[in-house]
Amino acid sequence: LKGPSFYVFSTPPVSTFDWVRAERTYHLCEVLFKVHKFWLAEDCWLQANLYLGLQDFDFEDQRPYCFSVMAGHGKSHVFNVELGSELAVWEKSFQRATFMEVQRSGSRTYMCSWQGEMLCFTVDFAMGFTCFESKTKNVLWRFKFSQLKGSSDDGKTRVNLLFQNLDTKQIETKELEFQDLTAVLHCVHSFIAAKVASVDPGFVDSQSLATKYMCSS
Hints:
The strands form four sheets. A four-stranded antiparallel β-sheet has the order 4-3-5-6. It has helices at 84-105, 181-199, 203-207, 209-216, and strands at 5-8, 24-27, 32-39, 45-47, 65-70, 76-81, 107-114, 117-124, 128-133, 139-143, 148-153, 158-164, 171-177. 25% of the residues lie in helices and 36% in strands. The chain is globular, with a radius of gyration of 19 Å. A hairpin with a 3-residue loop joins β8 (117-124) and β9 (128-133). The longest helix is centred in the middle third of the chain and has 22 residues, at 84-105.
C-alpha cells in the first residue's frame, strides 16, 4: 500500500526505483479487500464473507490467515500472513488507506453507455452519483448516496442502480454499461464506506471481522 495505489511484487521493494517494477498496480478505490477465513480456538474455520453478492474463492491450501484483494475485470490476488494480528493490521490498513484516498481524490469518473449514448458516470464524495453527456457535459441525472437503495448486475458489463426519488418516493432504475464493471462497483463501495465512516468514526471498527476476533481472543 503506497499513496493511492496497491502494488503487487514478486519480491519486496528495497529502493525507490523498485516501485516502478511492480508486477501489478491497482488504484485503491477500485479494489476490494476481503478476509476469507481464519482459525478459531475450537479448531474449526469460519468463512468470512464481508461483502454480500461476492462469491468465495476455492483455496487449495489450508493456511489459516488468508485475505484476498479483488480487482477489475475479475482479477484477484490471495495472500497469507503468519498471525491473526497481522491479518487485522492489513484489514485496518486497507480501510484507512482507501478512506484517505477517497477524501483526497474527491471523485472518480468513468465512461459508460446508457440508452445507446456514450456518457460519463461520476462518483463524488460530496455530491453522490452524477450521469452526464460526455460532449456537452449536460447533467442527465444526479442522486445522493442515501438515495441508492439497491443494485443488480449481470456480472459482465451491465448494472442497474436503484435510486429513490425524494419527491415521489418512487424507485427509479438507471441502467448503465461499463467496460470494467467490477472496478466501478468497487469504487462505489469505497466511496459509500468512506461516506459512512466520515459521519460515524466507529463504522470502520464495527466492520472489521479480524479485529473483532483478535479482541475477543
